[in-house]
Specification:
Helices cover 44% and strands 17% of the residues. With 293 residues, it is an alpha+beta fold. Strand 5 and strand 6 (54-58) form a beta hairpin. The protein is globular, with a radius of gyration of 20 Å.
Protein backbone atom coordinates (compact mmCIF):
# COMPACT_ATOMS: atom_id res chain seq x y z
CA UNK A 1 0.00 0.00 0.00
CA UNK A 2 3.01 2.28 0.20
CA UNK A 3 3.38 4.67 -2.71
CA UNK A 4 6.12 4.49 -5.27
CA UNK A 5 8.76 7.21 -5.47
CA UNK A 6 8.55 9.01 -8.80
CA UNK A 7 11.74 10.76 -9.92
CA UNK A 8 11.08 14.00 -11.79
CA UNK A 9 13.32 14.46 -14.85
CA UNK A 10 15.78 17.33 -14.73
CA UNK A 11 15.08 20.35 -16.90
CA UNK A 12 16.82 23.57 -17.82
CA UNK A 13 15.60 25.20 -14.61
CA UNK A 14 16.72 24.42 -11.07
CA UNK A 15 13.49 25.89 -9.76
CA UNK A 16 10.64 24.14 -11.55
CA UNK A 17 9.52 21.94 -14.45
CA UNK A 18 6.45 22.39 -16.61
CA UNK A 19 5.18 19.23 -18.30
CA UNK A 20 2.34 18.82 -20.79
CA UNK A 21 0.89 15.33 -20.32
CA UNK A 22 -0.90 14.16 -23.45
CA UNK A 23 -1.09 10.38 -23.25
CA UNK A 24 -3.11 8.13 -20.97
CA UNK A 25 0.13 6.40 -19.93
CA UNK A 26 1.57 9.66 -18.64
CA UNK A 27 -1.72 10.58 -16.97
CA UNK A 28 -2.58 7.29 -15.23
CA UNK A 29 0.63 7.12 -13.21
CA UNK A 30 0.27 4.78 -10.18
CA UNK A 31 -0.04 6.11 -6.63
CA UNK A 32 3.27 7.87 -6.05
CA UNK A 33 5.10 10.66 -4.28
CA UNK A 34 8.05 12.94 -4.91
CA UNK A 35 9.91 15.71 -3.13
CA UNK A 36 8.64 18.35 -5.53
CA UNK A 37 5.37 20.21 -4.90
CA UNK A 38 3.02 19.62 -7.82
CA UNK A 39 0.41 21.93 -9.30
CA UNK A 40 -1.78 20.05 -11.76
CA UNK A 41 -4.39 21.60 -14.03
CA UNK A 42 -6.69 19.34 -16.05
CA UNK A 43 -8.61 21.29 -18.69
CA UNK A 44 -10.70 18.27 -19.70
CA UNK A 45 -11.20 14.75 -18.44
CA UNK A 46 -13.08 12.69 -15.89
CA UNK A 47 -12.08 10.11 -13.34
CA UNK A 48 -11.01 9.53 -9.76
CA UNK A 49 -8.45 11.62 -7.89
CA UNK A 50 -6.53 10.18 -4.93
CA UNK A 51 -4.54 12.59 -2.73
CA UNK A 52 -3.32 11.22 0.59
CA UNK A 53 -6.39 9.58 2.11
CA UNK A 54 -8.82 11.64 0.01
CA UNK A 55 -10.76 10.03 -2.84
CA UNK A 56 -12.94 12.18 -5.12
CA UNK A 57 -14.18 12.57 -8.67
CA UNK A 58 -12.41 15.00 -10.92
CA UNK A 59 -13.74 16.62 -14.08
CA UNK A 60 -12.96 19.51 -16.42
CA UNK A 61 -10.98 22.42 -14.96
CA UNK A 62 -9.59 20.44 -12.04
CA UNK A 63 -6.85 22.46 -10.32
CA UNK A 64 -5.00 20.93 -7.36
CA UNK A 65 -1.80 21.73 -5.47
CA UNK A 66 -0.08 18.69 -3.92
CA UNK A 67 2.64 19.15 -1.30
CA UNK A 68 6.06 17.55 -1.09
CA UNK A 69 5.98 13.77 -0.49
CA UNK A 70 2.16 13.70 -0.43
CA UNK A 71 1.09 10.49 -2.26
CA UNK A 72 -1.35 11.00 -5.12
CA UNK A 73 -2.66 9.80 -8.47
CA UNK A 74 -5.34 10.66 -11.01
CA UNK A 75 -7.06 7.74 -12.76
CA UNK A 76 -8.90 8.55 -15.97
CA UNK A 77 -12.30 6.93 -16.61
CA UNK A 78 -12.04 3.86 -18.83
CA UNK A 79 -14.82 5.13 -21.07
CA UNK A 80 -12.77 8.25 -21.83
CA UNK A 81 -10.43 6.33 -24.15
CA UNK A 82 -11.63 8.22 -27.24
CA UNK A 83 -10.60 11.55 -25.76
CA UNK A 84 -7.15 11.16 -24.26
CA UNK A 85 -6.77 13.07 -20.99
CA UNK A 86 -4.40 16.00 -20.88
CA UNK A 87 -2.90 18.00 -18.07
CA UNK A 88 -0.46 20.80 -17.36
CA UNK A 89 1.78 19.68 -14.50
CA UNK A 90 4.13 22.07 -12.71
CA UNK A 91 6.77 20.59 -10.42
CA UNK A 92 8.26 23.03 -7.91
CA UNK A 93 11.74 21.78 -7.05
CA UNK A 94 13.51 21.93 -3.70
CA UNK A 95 15.58 24.90 -4.86
CA UNK A 96 12.35 26.81 -5.35
CA UNK A 97 11.85 26.81 -1.58
CA UNK A 98 15.47 27.07 -0.45
CA UNK A 99 16.23 30.45 -2.00
CA UNK A 100 16.18 33.43 0.35
CA UNK A 101 14.15 35.29 -2.27
CA UNK A 102 11.10 33.16 -1.55
CA UNK A 103 11.37 33.94 2.17
CA UNK A 104 11.18 37.67 1.52
CA UNK A 105 8.12 39.74 2.41
CA UNK A 106 7.01 39.92 -1.24
CA UNK A 107 6.47 36.15 -1.31
CA UNK A 108 4.85 35.77 2.11
CA UNK A 109 1.46 34.70 0.79
CA UNK A 110 2.97 32.25 -1.73
CA UNK A 111 5.11 30.72 0.99
CA UNK A 112 2.01 30.25 3.17
CA UNK A 113 0.23 28.59 0.25
CA UNK A 114 3.07 26.12 -0.29
CA UNK A 115 3.18 25.27 3.41
CA UNK A 116 -0.56 24.52 3.31
CA UNK A 117 -0.12 22.26 0.27
CA UNK A 118 0.95 19.41 2.56
CA UNK A 119 -2.78 18.80 3.07
CA UNK A 120 -3.55 18.96 -0.66
CA UNK A 121 -5.48 21.99 -1.96
CA UNK A 122 -8.39 21.78 -4.41
CA UNK A 123 -9.22 25.13 -5.99
CA UNK A 124 -12.67 26.10 -7.22
CA UNK A 125 -13.62 25.79 -10.86
CA UNK A 126 -13.94 29.57 -11.19
CA UNK A 127 -10.31 29.95 -10.08
CA UNK A 128 -9.21 27.31 -12.58
CA UNK A 129 -11.12 29.04 -15.38
CA UNK A 130 -9.51 32.36 -14.47
CA UNK A 131 -6.02 30.84 -14.69
CA UNK A 132 -6.72 28.57 -17.66
CA UNK A 133 -5.00 30.68 -20.33
CA UNK A 134 -1.87 31.20 -18.23
CA UNK A 135 -1.61 27.46 -17.50
CA UNK A 136 -2.11 26.44 -21.12
CA UNK A 137 0.43 28.97 -22.41
CA UNK A 138 3.05 28.10 -19.80
CA UNK A 139 4.75 25.13 -21.57
CA UNK A 140 5.59 27.16 -24.68
CA UNK A 141 6.95 30.26 -22.95
CA UNK A 142 10.63 31.33 -22.82
CA UNK A 143 12.29 30.54 -19.47
CA UNK A 144 12.07 34.00 -17.88
CA UNK A 145 8.49 34.59 -19.00
CA UNK A 146 7.63 31.12 -17.75
CA UNK A 147 8.97 31.96 -14.28
CA UNK A 148 7.14 35.29 -14.18
CA UNK A 149 3.87 33.67 -15.23
CA UNK A 150 4.28 30.88 -12.69
CA UNK A 151 4.77 33.43 -9.90
CA UNK A 152 1.63 35.24 -11.09
CA UNK A 153 -0.31 31.97 -10.95
CA UNK A 154 0.95 31.17 -7.45
CA UNK A 155 0.20 34.70 -6.25
CA UNK A 156 -3.39 34.50 -7.49
CA UNK A 157 -3.83 31.10 -5.86
CA UNK A 158 -2.41 32.41 -2.59
CA UNK A 159 -4.97 35.25 -2.55
CA UNK A 160 -8.12 33.29 -3.35
CA UNK A 161 -10.51 31.97 -0.71
CA UNK A 162 -12.16 29.63 -3.21
CA UNK A 163 -10.41 26.44 -2.16
CA UNK A 164 -10.68 23.50 0.23
CA UNK A 165 -8.23 21.09 1.79
CA UNK A 166 -8.31 17.47 0.66
CA UNK A 167 -6.73 15.96 3.79
CA UNK A 168 -7.95 17.06 7.21
CA UNK A 169 -4.47 16.65 8.61
CA UNK A 170 -1.03 16.46 7.05
CA UNK A 171 -1.00 12.97 5.57
CA UNK A 172 2.09 10.91 6.14
CA UNK A 173 2.89 7.26 5.61
CA UNK A 174 5.90 4.99 5.37
CA UNK A 175 7.32 5.99 2.00
CA UNK A 176 8.84 3.02 0.25
CA UNK A 177 9.81 2.64 -3.39
CA UNK A 178 8.94 -1.03 -3.65
CA UNK A 179 5.38 -1.27 -2.31
CA UNK A 180 3.18 1.04 -4.37
CA UNK A 181 1.51 -2.00 -5.94
CA UNK A 182 -0.34 -2.70 -2.71
CA UNK A 183 -2.35 0.48 -2.93
CA UNK A 184 -2.85 0.18 -6.65
CA UNK A 185 -4.11 -3.38 -6.22
CA UNK A 186 -6.67 -2.10 -3.71
CA UNK A 187 -7.74 0.75 -6.01
CA UNK A 188 -8.14 -1.66 -8.90
CA UNK A 189 -10.11 -4.17 -6.85
CA UNK A 190 -12.50 -1.53 -5.52
CA UNK A 191 -13.02 -0.07 -8.99
CA UNK A 192 -13.99 -3.48 -10.37
CA UNK A 193 -16.12 -4.71 -7.46
CA UNK A 194 -17.61 -1.68 -5.68
CA UNK A 195 -21.14 -2.63 -6.83
CA UNK A 196 -20.76 -5.97 -5.06
CA UNK A 197 -20.59 -6.77 -1.36
CA UNK A 198 -16.89 -6.45 -0.50
CA UNK A 199 -15.53 -7.99 2.69
CA UNK A 200 -12.19 -7.46 4.41
CA UNK A 201 -11.34 -11.04 3.50
CA UNK A 202 -11.91 -10.30 -0.20
CA UNK A 203 -9.45 -7.42 -0.27
CA UNK A 204 -6.98 -8.96 2.17
CA UNK A 205 -6.71 -12.00 -0.08
CA UNK A 206 -5.49 -9.77 -2.93
CA UNK A 207 -2.51 -8.81 -0.76
CA UNK A 208 -2.02 -12.25 0.85
CA UNK A 209 -2.91 -10.89 4.29
CA UNK A 210 -5.32 -12.00 6.98
CA UNK A 211 -8.42 -9.79 7.33
CA UNK A 212 -7.36 -8.60 10.79
CA UNK A 213 -3.85 -7.69 9.71
CA UNK A 214 -5.12 -5.94 6.58
CA UNK A 215 -7.63 -3.89 8.60
CA UNK A 216 -4.96 -2.64 11.00
CA UNK A 217 -2.51 -2.08 8.18
CA UNK A 218 -4.96 -0.05 6.11
CA UNK A 219 -6.11 2.08 9.05
CA UNK A 220 -2.53 2.84 10.06
CA UNK A 221 -1.50 3.78 6.53
CA UNK A 222 -4.56 5.72 5.41
CA UNK A 223 -5.68 7.23 8.74
CA UNK A 224 -9.19 5.88 8.17
CA UNK A 225 -10.81 2.45 8.11
CA UNK A 226 -11.12 0.47 4.90
CA UNK A 227 -14.92 0.67 4.93
CA UNK A 228 -14.89 4.43 5.44
CA UNK A 229 -12.60 4.66 2.43
CA UNK A 230 -14.85 2.29 0.45
CA UNK A 231 -18.01 4.25 1.28
CA UNK A 232 -16.29 7.49 0.29
CA UNK A 233 -15.42 5.91 -3.05
CA UNK A 234 -19.04 4.80 -3.56
CA UNK A 235 -20.30 8.28 -2.73
CA UNK A 236 -17.95 9.73 -5.35
CA UNK A 237 -19.53 7.38 -7.88
CA UNK A 238 -23.03 8.40 -6.80
CA UNK A 239 -22.13 12.09 -7.26
CA UNK A 240 -21.10 11.40 -10.84
CA UNK A 241 -24.45 9.72 -11.52
CA UNK A 242 -26.36 12.55 -9.88
CA UNK A 243 -24.74 15.12 -12.14
CA UNK A 244 -24.57 13.18 -15.39
CA UNK A 245 -27.84 11.20 -15.42
CA UNK A 246 -31.50 11.71 -14.60
CA UNK A 247 -31.70 8.49 -12.59
CA UNK A 248 -33.73 8.49 -9.40
CA UNK A 249 -32.01 8.63 -6.02
CA UNK A 250 -32.89 5.00 -5.31
CA UNK A 251 -31.43 3.86 -8.65
CA UNK A 252 -28.25 5.77 -7.95
CA UNK A 253 -28.03 4.28 -4.48
CA UNK A 254 -27.93 0.72 -5.81
CA UNK A 255 -25.84 1.58 -8.88
CA UNK A 256 -23.19 3.00 -6.53
CA UNK A 257 -22.95 -0.24 -4.58
CA UNK A 258 -25.10 0.59 -1.55
CA UNK A 259 -27.63 -1.99 -0.37
CA UNK A 260 -29.72 0.29 1.84
CA UNK A 261 -31.25 3.64 0.91
CA UNK A 262 -31.21 5.01 4.51
CA UNK A 263 -27.55 4.05 4.85
CA UNK A 264 -26.81 5.71 1.50
CA UNK A 265 -28.42 8.94 2.72
CA UNK A 266 -26.40 8.88 5.94
CA UNK A 267 -23.13 8.33 4.10
CA UNK A 268 -23.92 11.02 1.53
CA UNK A 269 -24.66 13.52 4.30
CA UNK A 270 -21.43 12.53 6.05
CA UNK A 271 -19.17 13.10 3.06
CA UNK A 272 -21.01 15.85 1.14
CA UNK A 273 -22.72 17.73 3.98
CA UNK A 274 -26.06 17.67 2.16
CA UNK A 275 -28.58 15.20 0.78
CA UNK A 276 -28.37 13.78 -2.78
CA UNK A 277 -31.30 15.81 -4.12
CA UNK A 278 -29.80 19.03 -2.77
CA UNK A 279 -26.42 18.14 -4.24
CA UNK A 280 -28.00 17.76 -7.68
CA UNK A 281 -29.99 20.98 -7.35
CA UNK A 282 -26.92 22.92 -6.23
CA UNK A 283 -25.07 21.77 -9.32
CA UNK A 284 -27.80 22.82 -11.74
CA UNK A 285 -28.23 26.12 -9.94
CA UNK A 286 -24.50 26.83 -10.15
CA UNK A 287 -24.46 26.17 -13.89
CA UNK A 288 -27.82 27.80 -14.62
CA UNK A 289 -29.39 24.59 -15.85
CA UNK A 290 -32.71 23.04 -15.13
CA UNK A 291 -32.51 19.62 -13.47
CA UNK A 292 -34.03 16.66 -15.25
CA UNK A 293 -37.30 15.41 -13.90
Amino acid sequence: MRPNYKPIPADESNLFNVVLQKSKKEFDYPWHYHQECELIYIPSGQGIRYVGNSVENFSDDDLVLVGSNLPHCWINELDQQKNSPNAIVIYLKEDFFDGTWLRSHEFKSINSLLELSGKGIKFGRAVAAQLKDKCLQLPGMPPMQKLITLLQILQELSETKDYRLLCEQHFSCDLDQGNSERMNVIYSYIDKHYRERISLADVAAQLYMTPGYFSKFFSKMMKKSFFEFLNEYKISKSCKLLLETDKSISEICYDSGFESIPFFYRQFKKFKKCQPKQYRQNYYKAFSQEPSA
